[in-house]
What we know:
The protein is of the alpha+beta class. About 30% of the residues lie in helices and about 25% in strands. The chain is built from four helices and seven strands. The chain has helices at about 1-15, 35-40, 45-60, 75-85, and strands at about 20-25, 30-35, 65-75, 90-95, 110-115, 120-125, 135-140. The strands form two sheets. Strands 2-1-3-4-7 form a five-stranded mixed beta sheet. Strands 5-6 form a two-stranded antiparallel sheet. The chain is globular.
Amino acid sequence: MGEALAEAQLAASRGERPIAAVAVMGDAMVVRAHDRVEQADDPTAHAVVVALREAARRLGRERLVDVTIFTTIEPCAMCVGALLESDVEALVYALPNTRDGAAGTVVQLSVDFVNGSSGTRRRYPSLTSESSALGYLPLSA
Length: 141
């Protein structure tokens, strides 16, 4: 999470919202990313989406089944959708997003997801206080 917080500071210094995401596989960091909405004039260039795109490119695959995403704030609906489509293993976030958090704070998009490529139904647990001090959402089957 420290890498994500450092990346958020970089985002703020560049005039972006101080939101960042880090993709980790095992003990290795795959990518650090921050919001690039202003820089790219792209309303979809949220930190989580940027991190997923770059991780998929670096790993050479679209399914990120063994990747955990650490982000500074609970993702929005668009980002949770991208997380589910990429089949990441887990999501860890530092702060709940009371405005548009879609991993349990405002809405829970990740409870019952059908894997489009295989047609299998996967159930994801809701966040609980027992998960950890940070928001933690396992997204793998």
